[in-house]
Amino acid sequence: MRPDILNPLFAETDTLDGVGPKLKKPLERLGLTRIRDLAYHLPDRFVTRRMVADLDNAQVGEQVIIALTVAEHRSGSSGRAPFRVFAHDAKGNACALTYFGRSSYTAKKQLPVGEQRWIAGRLDQYGDMLQIVHPDHVAKESTGAMGRQVEPIYRLAEGLTQPRIGGMIEQALERAPELLEWIDPSVLDKQGWPQWRNALTLAHRSENGKARDRLAYDELFANALALMLVRASNRARKGQALHGNGHLRDKLKLPFPLTGAQQRSITEITGDMAQPSPMLRLLQGDVGAGKTVVALEAMLAAVEAGAQTALLAPTELLSRQHFETLRKMAAPTGVEIALLTGRDKGKARESILMGLLDGSINIVVGTHAIFQDTVAYKNLGLVVIDEQHRFGVSQRLLLTQKGKVTPHTLAMTATPIPRTLVLAQHGEMEVSQLDELPPGRQAIDTRVVPLERMDDIVAGLSRHVSGGGQAYWVCPMVRGSENENEDLAAAEARYAALKKHFDEDVVMVHGQLAPELKDAGMARFANGDAKVLVATTVIEVGVDVPNATLMVIEQAERFGLAQLHQLRGRVGRGSAKSVCVLLRVAELSETGKQRLALMRESQDGFRLAEEDLKLRGGGELLGTRQSGEEGFRIATLEQTQKFAEMAQDEAKLLVERDGGLEGKRGEAARMLLYLLERDWGVKTLRGG
Ligand code: ADP
Ligand code: MG
After folding, report:
1. Residue 438 CB–ligand 1 contact under 6 Å
2. 69 or 235, greater pLDDT
3. Do 116 and 67 touch, CB atoms closer than 8 A?
4. What pLDDT digit, counting tens, does each position of 290-305 carry?
5. Is the CB of 260 under 6 A from ligand 1?
6. Contact criterion met (CB below 8 Å) for 273 and 301
7. Distance between CA 585 and CA 594 in Å, rounded?
8. Does the C-beta of 605 come closer than 6 Å to ligand 1?
């Protein structure tokens, strides 16, 4: 149970003064639902402003605070043109305030004609006119946030402004209690880090590296500690040693020899499974590295030893696909394989449940439906989790704690995490790596093409489809991005445009569709009815349509390299030559160019991940933040690299000294786990 002292931090955002249902929505869009989230919503950057008497005293490009008098409102002449407010300073110098999109309504209210307002923002030049685009502040008086010289700039969503969110964060910080220190005093001392509450406040006030580092370290430490507890409790659990004798595996007739990496991984996995303590192993391998067959070997080994196995996939579509593949591959062995998803109802479901209970089904494939309370197994010995980054650690944990005897767990991922980060993200598991692709794979011909050549691309797509091929067309949709609606609109517009060419042959799939519609669209494409699939990044994971050998990715510069690599992995799955077209905007930054050039040069997921890391420096964790589950919220990539090892060591030390987290530091650490919702780590303590 969460300690009471944290309750104020876990209250909902509408308990703050001035926050009602209307402001709650945009906050939610930023992933901010609790006071805690606001307190941890750290500034993207800071601006230093200068109060200027008039425009003659200001430089273009400078952040200023200035009094302007409003002269005129002018709506955009066409749909795309911005709304502009014409104003002038005390000397009569003109300056426009420019608003794009839907913000004009607020602007009109804030800037009545004939009145003077204080404006804070960046002075730009547009033609021979001075302008401020989307001022950060508009106020009647130059006091309060307006008067601050160093100001935090926060990530916003539509409906929020800097002063609004700044005010909420101030309130949130006031509610933060003093907490017991969980960092060892010697560490704190050596690093020169502030106490937690202080660090939180400082991080919002100015560019304070120490404060930020401390908060990042907290997150890494919490994560490491939680994983460590999971691992310790797993070790202490009762498992069952499974010694397969090979009689089923001998019957497999694989159309190819296994690669060395596959053989090695299988040996590692079956070795673990033969131990009495439950396995926790991660099989990491690039897209197309051949993880499925490794999983099949492991599952057959379990069945040989008289146990059942379950394969969990993140989506219905992937489950179905795995089911078909495994059924074909395992046919000579005669094992009984079933598919169970949330959509199976009535008799069909009943008979599968019976089969699992009486043991007549050896292998079940499905979505999380296979772990619902109503599903009971005769003897579940091995759980395989595909695309495990789609499931949080807590979810993974629940799955494996069903019976009295804990099954072995094999998790699989294609996310090419740089070696430096494997520990931070998967510290609770042993790792097997498929670092070798099956022979004979053709490199995917990757081309970087500017957007202006759209007509050529569409013509090429037409030829491809007439020749019997299928293709993916990917539009960006970054979950939680500010432009979510714009993204969707862009995908829809593209779909409409392609529909003119391809009519019934094109389908669209995106994350905001109902699951049935999404699956139906995917299915039409998978069975070849539809030739072109317009999609957002929902297709990133695991979809396998070998006949689709062309992929177009729009606004490729907006994706992380790792994500581009995952997307591209949807083509090039058969022996046919595949092409991936990366459509880019005309004006691309130097880094942008380098990144896309890397995609053209390399097909090695690990190399791309490492390079991505170098090029991006801090910032996001390889696009994993976009898929949410395992990215760190506070720690940047740089901080992760810098502090992950130390966090690991400290967590290990603590668990060795005080495995039940009962001492003073243990208690403080427990608090941290609840604070950052790594509470699944604490839960393993009970009875563990
Ligand atoms: P992933 O690791 O992305 O899940 P899959 O298991 O789907 O990869 O394998 C990709 C393709 O490679 C499949 O068509 C599979 O049959 C094939 N494959 C797997 N192992 C080998 C191998 N050793 N030699 C040749 N082809 C293989
Ligand atoms: Mg796979």
Report:
1. yes
2. 69
3. yes
4. 999 999 999 999 999 9
5. no
6. yes
7. 14
8. no
Q: State how far the Cα of 200 lies from the Cα of 682, in Å rounded to an integer.
A: 24
pLDDT in tens, 109-150: 899 999 999 999 999 998 889 999 988 888 888 776 666 778
Candidate of 293, 297, 541, 570 to mutate for ligand 1, largest count of ligand atoms within 8 Å of Cβ: 293
Three-state DSSP state, 170: helix
The residue among 364, 405, 422 whose CA lies nearest residue 279 is 405
Q: How far apart are CA 624 and CA 424, in angstroms?
A: 14
**414 vs 326, residue with greater confidence:** 326
Reduced to 3 states (helix: H, G, I; strand: E, B; else coil), residue 603 is coil
- CA-to-CA separations, 474 to 479, 490, 581, in angstroms, rounded: 15, 11, 10
Collapsed DSSP state (helix, strand, coil) of residue 675: helix
Average confidence (pLDDT) over 336-361: 92
**pTM metric for this prediction:** 0.70
What is the three-class DSSP state of 278? coil
In short, whether 288's Cβ falls inside 6 Å of ligand 1 is yes
Ligand 1 pocket mutation, candidates 253, 256, 571, criterion most atoms within 8 A of CB: 256
Distance CA 126, CA 121 (A): 15
- The neighbouring-strand residues paired with 447 are 581
256 CB less than 6 Å from ligand 1?
yes
Specify the ligand 1 atom closest to the Cα of 258.
23
Hey, is 376 helix, strand or coil?
coil
Q: How far is the CA of 289 from the centre of ligand 2 (A)?
A: 8
Give 36 Cα–ligand 2 centroid separation in angstroms.
37
**Pick from 318, 316, 257: which is nearest to 290 by CA?**
257
Q: Describe the crossing of helices 637-657 and 419-426 by its angle, rounded to 10 degrees.
A: 50
Which of the ligands is closest to the CA of residue 259?
Answer: 1
- Average pLDDT, rounded, for the chain: 87
Q: How many CB atoms lie within 10 A of CB 439?
A: 8
Helices (H), 427-467: 454-466
Q: Is the CB of 416 under 6 A from ligand 1?
A: no
Q: Which-ligand-closest: CA of 572?
A: 1
The ligand placed nearest to the CA atom of residue 326 is 1
What's the CA angle centered on 219, arms 218 and 224, to 5 degrees?
100
pLDDT of residue 621: 34
**Spatial distance between the Cα atoms of 537 and 450, rounded to a whole number of angstroms:** 21
Q: Is the CB of 26 under 6 A from ligand 1?
A: no
Give the 3-state secondary structure of residue 129. Answer: strand
> In three state form, how does the secondary structure of 54-75 look?
CHHHCCCCCEEEEEEEEEEEEC
Instruction: Give nearest CA residue, ligand 1 atom 15.
Output: 290
Encoded tokens for 665: 């530091």
Residue whose tokens read 């690669």: 259
> Per the structure block, which two tokens stand in for 485?
């609606």
Distance CA 256, CA 243 (A): 25
Nearest CA, atom 16, ligand 1: 290
Return all residues near 255 (Cβ < 8 A) that are at least 6 apart: none
- The three-point CA angle 624-630-633 to 5° equals 85
Do 442 and 309 form a contact (C-beta atoms < 8 A)? no
Distances in whole angstroms, Cα of residue 184 to Cα of each of 250, 490, 514, 649, 661: 55, 51, 49, 12, 14
Q: Residue 73: which of 108, 43, 46 has the closest Cα?
A: 108
Cβ atoms within 10 A of the Cβ of 466, count? Answer: 9
**Nearest CA among 636, 643, 647 for reference residue 613:** 636
Rg of the chain over CA atoms, in angstroms?
28
